[in-house]
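For the sake of transparency, this paper describes our internal protein records without simplification. The tokens are whole numbers drawn from a learned vocabulary of local backbone shapes. One such record is reproduced below, unchanged from the form in which we store it.

. . .
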Amino acid sequence: MSMMKFDDSKIKEIRKRKEQGLPPLPKEGDVVEQSKNAKGGSELIYQRVKERVPEDLWNYFQIILSRVREYEDKPKILWFQDTSKDPEVQFLKDKSYRDKFERFVFPSDWSLEKYNIDLDVEYEKSVVLKNAIEPIPIHTKPKDGLIRKEWEPLYNACKETPNVNYHGTVSNEEIRSALQQTHILAYPNVYPETGCISVIEAMSASCIVVCPNLAVLPETCANFAWMYGFVLDKTEHARKFAYVLKDAIDNFWEAPVQAGLAFQKQYYDMHYDIETTAKQWTMMLETIKNNIENTKEKKS
């Protein structure tokens, strides 16, 4: 008689995480493991902040970017980039898990508000430190026709779509260079963003941003975007998007538009400069560290 061998590795992993006080992994699988080599916006902002904060101060803490996989014997900072609906953060409904962290960091006020409403994350333990960029260098846009930057989730369909140049996955350096030759970020977004670096870089590059008023985009765009009302119906969304996009194309070189784009660049270079954000991180971490050390001294 043959016997089926039972793989109990999953049970052991669940038991181990529970013993360590770690939240359970989501049912969809380990996204962190699947995307460990990713170099998206979240990874870029994490690295840029880390390299600008004093190393000894950064290493005093365990700073976790969105997904909790292990606990170190350090004060813990949980830095969110996911939405409050993401399976990876649902464990925060349990206050005993929230109590393990010294501070929660959010990329936008919208994101903090949603975590408070959906997961009861305390405002008192939270701080908003916006995603930031290295400002795009001052440049002159080409006038021999508009270069349109399209975002299309169906990558294979992109390759076959007329008037769309699909470049595949490229480095952030290539994107920053391309933005200097780009006039419009055409962004018919349908996924709730929490702090959109793509938009911030495009704004710094003096691009018109055409996008819906979905999630954090009104906050991030600060009235500079050519924005339309988001709708769930895809056909209606495409119609509204096309109408505003055509208006942006037709009017890009008009003097009032150019003046607005110049002011837009000044605004984003000032408010979203990585150097400023890194200083804010340093100040926050120094304050938390001093409070922890002072508490230790009083107890000893």
In short: Residues 1-6, 30-35, 145-152 have pLDDT under 50 and may be disordered. The chain has two domains: 17-22+38-132+274-299, 148-271. Residues 17-22+38-132+274-299 form one domain.
